[in-house]
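SEQUENCE-TO-STRUCTURE ENTRY
===========================
Question of interest: how does this chain fold, as expressed in backbone structure tokens?
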Amino acid sequence: MLTDKAVRAAGARDKAYKLTDSGGLYLHISTKAHKSWRFKYRFDKKELLLTIGSYPDVSLADARSIRDDARKMLRGGRDPRHSMKRSRLVAGRDGQQTFEDTARQWHALQLPRWKEVHANDVITSLERDIFPDLGAMPLDEIDKPLLLAVLRKIEKRGAIETARRAKQRVAAVYRYANAHGAKLENPAVDINEALAPLPPSKRYPAMLSEDAIRAMMFDIDRAGASPVTRLAARFLALTAQRPGMIRNIEWDDIKGVDWAKPSSDIDNATWVVPAAKIKQELHLRSDEAFEHPVPLSGAAVDALRAVRLLTGRTRFVFPGATSGVKPMSENAIGYLYNREGYKGRHVPHGWRSSFSTILNEQAERELGQDLRLLADRMIIDLMLAHTPAGMSASELRYNRAAYMPRRRELAQRWAALIMAGALPPIEIIESPRRKRRN
């Protein structure tokens, strides 16, 4: 039997050698005095060797304990090498981890697929709202009442949506832990009913009558703003997409238009919003980002052809006034509306309400005349990059480009409704030139 003194005193020799303990355990000493514990045993009629670890990282007492555990496995018909290999691969996950340790591991795993700003937002919210109370606790000690108490502290400062996002992040941490075999009850599941209800969604001021919209288009066309801003406002109205998506549209995102031939066929003209831009604009927290095709009406293509005369050599369709390498200011269109007297009456985001309300009302009035209109409510949602009621996110990924012929018809119908009396786009870009000549 070995002693601690003998193990410490063992030094290098010309050849590697071993000092035997008992029960198959021995200490191997290399020619460079590296010491490692090894366990020799027989399994399935074969002589095998299990390397336990290096001395002094693994003491004599620890090595004997591991040997004893290995012998128990052998008596149960199991090869101890498999258990040792699993422990090394799992790297201690079987031991209790704190919520903060696990949350930081989960967060680090998401970094390659998250935008930096979102990744910072997630870890900052956990550090501010969750770690102070739950961070040092083992995962199996956090239950629903405890998590609810922490979430209600967030709600008390009026941050209702923040509390719900925190709950979602806690749920994700537990799913991550359980994916590694933790078998924990997820305290964030089925607690929505105990949380404060979300406040009503913000309603953006919007013109909801065709006459009012046409009058507004008339005013914006003739406003004293730059042609790029006025054409961006027109393109926004025609496509009814989110203002941030309009600001960041690039020429490469436009498909199916031959810019060199003004009279060319535009039946397939489409603005394809890349998945990354959709993810950024909609603040998606998962992989369910999707490419969003926007069919372009003839009026939308005309607006693009006109602005291309001004910005065709830049990356962005609607660049900023002071720099062609950055998109236009997020406030440019809104300020234009305010200057023309539409403050509190219509905002850039309001076109989505205008589009949805007017076309849905038309569909309801005409339902008996055309069976295709039964699907229009869903198609209108698709055009706005919404998930239609009753359609799962996975189904949306497969159907995002569906119904394109009807979507084009609705885009053309919408353009015809709002463009009556509008200036030809070429006049919008030429008007400043005439003023300079006069």
Remarks:
- The chain has three domains: 4-90, 99-194, 210-437.
- Residues 4-90 form a domain with the Double Stranded RNA Binding Domain fold (CATH 3.30.160.390).
- Residues 91-95, 433-438 have pLDDT under 50 and may be disordered.
- DSSP finds 18 helices and seven strands in the chain.
